[in-house]
């Protein structure tokens, strides 16, 4: 018996169309997690989880990640208050990616530079020498400098 | 002069809030691309692009990927007709992930097992020995065996 158990990877057809969770972690032990707003459907961020972070997420209903830059567990919102309450977790056919539908706590922003979504810029036209980006969110939810000071 | 040029990675603040596309490709030369339905916002798949695949996507307006399993370029829909017309490409704060908003051609499915989205299953409760999956799409758009025969 165990509360949060992942099954061993099985036959291709079982992985792709079966009813057992058999997540595939990459050579760094990670699986990609696309995070979307449960209300609007907008993509908020892309994070990475190891097996333990995924277990904590399922167990607590709040999103945990593995920070590749800090090489440590990272409960989203632990310091910022932007906790992600997880409503649904989907997996794809080969079970090497997840989608988390969440509600964001605190001030409602997800991006550490202050925007609602980390995907706040779109690829725009080229100016002839470089591809440019254009903001799709007009204003930030908050100014991180006001909260954390200059970084 | 060049039509599709990516700028070299710059200062953190320039990458995170600037107006130049400076994609970060990982140690395999890849960047993750979350693909969403431009109409519904639903996440359809997660693919990976190298620099050339991203250039082809921007240039042609149709999505190209790098297939990690086949180690080759992969124009989505080339054989299935499920071509992805790209309406918008977003990048995140650290520019190591993309979101593509697309319209799917052909029969409208994205998943090779026949569903509209590759994320057609959600993580359900545990049965006490393993986490189970439950379908969120009731029916497949098509049966791949009808098209390609038994694999």
Automatic annotation (TrEMBL), chains A, B:
How many cofactor units bind, and how? Binds 1 Mg(2+) ion per subunit. Binds 1 zinc ion per subunit.
Sorted alphabetically, which Pfam families does this protein's record hold? PRA-CH (PF01502)
Protein name per the record: Phosphoribosyl-AMP cyclohydrolase
- What HAMAP family has UniProt attached to this entry? HisI
Keyword Metal-binding set for record: yes
Which keywords label this protein? Amino-acid biosynthesis, Cytoplasm, Histidine biosynthesis, Hydrolase, Magnesium, Metal-binding, Zinc
Report the locations given in the UniProt record: Cytoplasm
The pathway this protein participates in, as annotated, is:
Amino-acid biosynthesis; L-histidine biosynthesis; L-histidine from 5-phospho-alpha-D-ribose 1-diphosphate: step 3/9
How this chain assembles, per its entry, is: Homodimer.
Boundaries of every Phosphoribosyl-AMP cyclohydrolase domain copy: 45-120
Q: Which organism is it from?
A: Roseibium denhamense
Its principal location? cytoplasm
Q: What does this protein do?
A: Catalyzes the hydrolysis of the adenine ring of phosphoribosyl-AMP.
Which PANTHER family is this protein grouped with?
HISTIDINE BIOSYNTHESIS BIFUNCTIONAL PROTEIN, HISTIDINE BIOSYNTHESIS BIFUNCTIONAL PROTEIN HIS7
From what superkingdom does this record's organism come?
Answer: Bacteria
Task: From the UniProt record, list the reaction(s) this protein catalyses.
Answer: 1-(5-phospho-beta-D-ribosyl)-5'-AMP + H2O = 1-(5-phospho-beta-D-ribosyl)-5-[(5-phospho-beta-D-ribosylamino)methylideneamino]imidazole-4-carboxamide
């Amino acid at each position: 018996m165990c509360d949060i158990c992942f099954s061993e990877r099985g036959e291709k057809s079982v992985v792709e169309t079966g009813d057992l969770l058999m997540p595939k972690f990459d050579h760094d032990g990670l699986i990609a997690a696309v995070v979307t707003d449960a209300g609007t459907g907008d993509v908020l961020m892309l994070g990475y989880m190891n097996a333990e972070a995924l277990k904590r997420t399922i167990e607590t209903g709040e999103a945990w990640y593995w920070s590749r830059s800090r090489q440590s567990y990272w409960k989203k919102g632990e310091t910022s208050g932007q906790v992600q309450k997880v409503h649904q977790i989907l997996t794809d056919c080969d079970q090497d990616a997840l989608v988390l539908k969440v509600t964001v706590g605190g001030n409602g922003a997800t991006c550490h530079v202050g925007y609602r979504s980390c995907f706040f810029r779109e690829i725009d036209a080229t100016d002839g020498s470089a591809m440019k980006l254009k903001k799709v969110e007009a204003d930030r939810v908050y100014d991180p400098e006001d909260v954390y000071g200059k970084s």
